[in-house]
TrEMBL record:
Gene3D superfamilies: Ribonuclease P/MRP, subunit p29. Keywords: Nucleus, Phosphoprotein, tRNA processing. It comes from Mohoua ochrocephala. SMART domains: POP4 (SM00538). It is found in: Nucleus, Nucleolus. This is Ribonuclease P protein subunit p29. The keyword tRNA-binding does not apply. Component of ribonuclease P, a ribonucleoprotein complex that generates mature tRNA molecules by cleaving their 5'-ends. Component of nuclear RNase P and RNase MRP ribonucleoproteins. RNase P consists of a catalytic RNA moiety and 10 different protein chains; POP1, POP4, POP5, POP7, RPP14, RPP21, RPP25, RPP30, RPP38 and RPP40. Within the RNase P complex, POP1, POP7 and RPP25 form the 'finger' subcomplex, POP5, RPP14, RPP40 and homodimeric RPP30 form the 'palm' subcomplex, and RPP21, POP4 and RPP38 form the 'wrist' subcomplex. All subunits of the RNase P complex interact with the catalytic RNA. Several subunits of RNase P are also part of the RNase MRP complex.
Amino acid sequence: PQGSEKAKTFVHAFLKRSMPKMKDEAIQDMLTRKAVVLEHYPKKKTKQKRKKTKGFTAKQRRELRLFEIEPEQQRYAIFLPLHELWKQYIRDLCHGLKPDAQPHMIQGKLLKADLHGAIVTVTKSRCPSYVGITGIILQEFKHVFKIITKEDKLKVVPKLNNVFSLELDGFVSYIYGSKFLLRASERSAKKFKLKGTIDL
């Protein structure tokens, strides 16, 4: 252990080195009051950027076959409960499809509604082989509908150049696929303009 004089000398020298701008009288005054506050400039902490969790790429989704429906699951009867849920969803969305309901209001809601579970029929098409296809929509992509028919066949029907009809509680709505080239998530935020007749 150091003597008291050596300790005082060390403390004085340490304070002089730590606070070079302070005069000796001021340092001595601080020591007599036995309260020493050293100036300290903390280092600025750099904020770490949060890494965004990346989802699968389109290629990875294809490789993992995330959106493929297994052949044993491609049965119309399996998806009838989904259709019943969809009908209830549309009735709630349109506050009940009553006879006095305004067609424009219902049409506007259907344009933005989720169509998974809806039964649709291809009524017009530039390709005659598509006309008459009826079934439940299992998947909707930007350019196609995947439809399961009563014959338990999964049909991939393009939206382009096709007109689909949709019937619920006596109300029939027509979907012009060429004006419907959107994903379901994008369609809910889009503003549709009411137009007259549209040619294929």
